[in-house]
Amino acid sequence: MARLGFTGDVMLGRKVDEAQRRQNRPVTAVWGDLTERLRSLDALFVNLECCLSTRGERWTRTHRPFHFRADPDWAVPALDAAGVEWANLANNHLLDFGETALLDTLDRLDSAGIARSGAGEDREAARAPATVEVGDADDTAAHDLRIAFVSATDNTPEFAAGPDGPGTAYLDLSEETQARETMEEMLARARRTDPDLLVASLHWGPNMVEEPADHFRRFGRWLAERGVDVVHGHSAHVFQAVEVHEGTPVLYDCGDFVDDYAVDSASRNDRSFLFEVEVEDGEISELRLVPTEIDDFAVGEASAEAAEWSRKRMRELSAEFGTRFETDGEELVLEP
After folding, report:
1. What is the rounded CA–CA span in Å between residue 72 and residue 210?
2. What SUPFAM superfamilies would the database entry show (predicted)?
């Protein structure tokens, strides 16, 4: 059995970066009192919502209100300390400081042994799958679980990788036929790695939207029908519903995990979950949602009030999809 953690946006730049460096915080400070929980997982998978570099210039070719960059000298050890084994890079902030910072991000993750997908030196590399071998920490005799990841984003087309230029794996998901054709090619490449588990990670849709668009629902269900085992969605900054389609959990949006963003008092973008997937004999046996809360530029276990709010909201959002949860202490567990 393996326990895998999925999170939404991990943004380590701006005030998070400043707090870490100027206050000389330990690298684990961004994970707060969740550090041990994260380290107990067999692997942690995140959307990295910033570049990792001290170089580059702010993107000015098109209007960008925010630019996120973290010093890799602390940020990479922080990812490693939490047990991050893979990062999605297909998002709307990876080129905030241009191609130089993007390439630095690739190099620093590669040097740390953290797999990544969704960006690269050119379009072919950006669309390439990543693979992670996960062993069961409690059973040294267990066969490693091979997980393949494909990543794409429908955000910021100007960041798209070209035939000969670096960037992200951009897909216009509103052009459903073309998007499916491209994704089918990406899935075929991933299947050639002979994975036990196939994950599609999508940075899709606008900010602060609490329900997935109809074409995202169709795309998520299509991915499940094409044999994807987990659909890992993010981008909205608030968590959205969980749907189970043909046995595949579709996490439409995992919300924010750690950042420095202003908090909307209604949508509560500071509250979300650590999504834990238990895999046994190559099959998903449990989905568990651990309530989280952002405070002082770090993520931590949600307060009782915040956890209750998040559980109630997740149940409301997911009911439309026929998804039901049991309560286990402060946590939610997907009903069989």
Report:
1. 32
2. Metallo-dependent phosphatases
Nearest residue to 173 via CA among 200, 198, 149: 200
Specify the amino acid at residue 221.
R
What does pTM read for this prediction?
0.97
Per-residue pLDDT, 333: 98
| DSSP β-bridge partners for residue 10 | 48, 258
Structure token digits, residue 20: 């870490």
The residues pairing with 234 across neighbouring beta strands, listed in sequence order, are 203
pLDDT digits over 42-91, tens only?
A: 999 999 999 999 999 999 999 999 999 999 999 999 999 999 999 999 99
Per-residue pLDDT reduced to its tens digit, 89-144: 999 999 999 999 999 999 999 999 999 999 999 999 999 999 999 986 555 545 68
What domains, with CATH codes, occur in the chain? 2-334 (3.60.21)
Do the beta carbons of residue 260 and residue 14 sit within 8 Å?
yes
Instruction: Take residue 335 and report the two structure tokens written for it.
Output: 């009903």
Mapped onto helix, strand or coil, the DSSP state of residue 89 is coil
Per DSSP, the three-state class of 147 is strand
- What is the token pair recorded at 22? 């100027």
Looking from the CA of 256 toward its CB, the CA atoms found within 13 Å total 28
Distance (Å, whole) CA 120 – CA 182: 16
Cα–Cα distance for residue pair 301/290, rounded to 1 Å: 8
